[in-house]
Design a protein that fits this description.
The chain is an alpha+beta fold and about 500 residues long. Helix content is about 35%, strand content about 15%. The chain contains 18 helices and 18 strands. The strands form five sheets. A seven-stranded antiparallel sheet has the order 14-13-1-5-3-17-18. A five-stranded parallel sheet has the order 6-12-11-8-7. Strands 2-4 form a two-stranded antiparallel sheet. It is found in: Nucleus; Cytoplasm; Secreted. This is Nicotinamide phosphoribosyltransferase. It catalyses: beta-nicotinamide D-ribonucleotide + diphosphate = 5-phospho-alpha-D-ribose 1-diphosphate + nicotinamide + H(+). Homodimer.
Length: about 500
């Protein structure tokens, strides 16, 4: 076996190697769950569930235990611990009894579902009493679900903000799925991060430059093409013409791409002069004569985003004019638009859109790009992701278990077997202690005994995460309630979707 081959036996925290010796004698089942804990003052009230299917397909399904991998793990752990603590016989029993397939059952909410924080998202349990220790052995890998869940959630938060201002300043949500472009490929830690984060963004939008995300959506979520881009300039393709030939650089790009939209970075020297004297004067006719749909998208890439966008709009309006849309907000001619990709995060995008609205401009005039704030400036604590044991069986007798640290009540865990359902008010809630009704449970068995038993296409995932007009009205209602409804936080915590 090559040194770089993935070995599931080595895909866990070191201390878990010794846990098979630590559980009570005669234990035969360990049942655990994953959630994004709820805490007072959370910025994100809901989470978008995504990425489990990828993890299961790539790392956990099929035969993951072989004699060769057992021997590799035995050697590694002997050297690592300087003593013999590896359960060689336990892993060999999995190989013999289950052909190296994991006797584990995982139930999860459908991918793309939007669930209030503090609820169970998936559960894990052993299906063979002999391998009770497997449930939490797999925790390390499963908790890495924090990453695609967090990216999908942040992308969803962007979508809500964009939807709010697009609806207010245009009267519709047309084009919403192209309003946030993923610029994050170069800003992440690895190719896998780019793929998983890029695909998570594509749950909510269809606009990306992160090719790795497209390939993941294709391979693991049955989507032939999940996102789209357009020809675009970077600074090297502009400054290679020299400072005195910026106009020639722009003109050449228009010639090279005579049809279809094109994005041209225009701040290599002076964005305002470029917009006024080159785009708004020397190349104005060239821009306006382009075919319908062949929009020139101006990209500022420096300065204060709010001030820069407003000033660029003002300059372009002077040259190209503007009109009022159906709800009374200004709109540049369709031949020219703006993309702002510098300094964009959850906070700045709302500040920009609010300023545009206040200045009478429609959100239709621009799109946004986001890089590290979308795919990289996050961690497991962004959504407080946790995996905890809530139920065990010893000699077939069940017991609800939990943690309740006196120093931090927010770290208290759930008890017993869990299910997820809507309560009498229609809000989603976790039912503990095995009291849920199976027919009402939103958790679906997706993995059992080494086999993926339920799959989702990206189309299905997107449908689950779709932002409908009625959702936008509810979101606005919730936002308004924040100013005076003392029960608002509790209601949102208990679920809107």
């Amino acid at each position: 076996m090559a040194a770089y081959d993935f070995n599931f036996l080595l895909a866990t925290d070191s201390y878990k190697i010794t846990h098979y010796k630590q559980y009570p004698p005669d234990i035969n089942k360990v049942y655990s769950y994953f959630e994004c804990r709820r805490r007072k003052g959370d910025r994100f009230k809901e989470v978008v569930f995504f990425g489990l299917q990828y993890l299961l397909k790539k790392y956990i399904s099929g035969q993951v235990v072989t004699e060769e991998k057992i021997q590799q793990a035995k050697l590694i752990y002997q050297l690592h611990f300087k003593q013999s603590v590896f359960d060689e016989e336990g892993w060999r029993r999995i190989l013999e009894k289950h052909d190296g397939r994991l006797p584990i059952r995982i139930k999860a909410i459908p991918e793309g579902k939007i669930i209030p924080r503090g609820n169970v998202l998936f559960t894990v349990e052993n299906t063979d009493p002999e391998f009770y220790w497997l449930t939490n052995y797999i925790e390390t890998m499963l908790v890495q679900m924090w990453y695609p869940i967090t990216v999908a959630t942040i992308s969803w938060e962007f979508k809500k903000i964009l939807a709010k201002y697009l609806k207010a300043t245009s009267g519709s949500l047309d084009g919403l799925e192209y309003k946030l472009h993923d610029f994050g490929y170069r800003g992440v830690s690895s190719q896998e991060s780019a793929a998983l984060g890029g695909a998570a963004h594509l749950v909510n939008f269809c606009s990306t430059d992160t090719v790795a995300g497209l390939l993941m959506a294709q391979q693991y979520y049955s989507c032939s093409m999940a996102g789209f881009s357009i020809p675009a300039a970077e600074h090297s393709t502009i400054i290679s013409w020299g400072r005195n030939r910026e106009k020639e650089a722009f003109e050449y790009l228009l010639e090279q791409f005579p049809s279809g939209p094109i994005s041209i970075v225009s701040d290599s020297y002076d964005i305002f002069k470029a917009c006024k004297h080159i785009w708004g004067d020397k190349l104005k006719e060239r821009v306006m004569e382009r075919k319908e749909g062949s929009t020139v998208v101006i990209r500022p890439d420096s300065g204060d985003p709010q001030e820069t966008v407003i000033e660029v709009l003002r300059i372009l309006e002077e040259s190209f004019g503007s009109s009022l849309n159906s709800v009374g907000y200004k709109l540049l001619p369709s031949c020219i638009r703006i993309i702002q990709g510098d300094g964009i995060d959850i906070h700045s995008i709302e500040e920009i859109l609010k300023k545009l609205k206040d200045e009478g401009w429609s959100a239709e005039n621009l799109v946004f790009g986001c890089g590290s704030a979308l795919l990289q400036k996050i961690n497991r604590d962004t959504l407080n992701c946790a995996f905890k044991c809530s139920y065990v069986e010893t000699k077939g007798k069940g017991m609800d278990v939990y943690k309740q640290p006196v120093t931090d009540p927010s770290k208290g865990s759930k008890r017993g077997r869990l299910s997820l359902s809507r309560n009498s008010l229609g809000f989603i809630e976790t039912v503990e202690r095995g009291n849920g009704k199976p027919e009402e449970d939103m958790l679906v068995t997706v993995f059992e005994n080494g086999t993926i038993v339920h799959e989702y296409s990206l189309e299905e995932v997107r449908k689950n995460a779709r932002l409908w007009e009625e959702d936008l009205a509810q979101l606005q209602h919730n936002e308004d309630a924040l100013n005076g409804d003392a029960l608002h936080d509790e209601r949102i915590m208990n679920g809107v979707h």
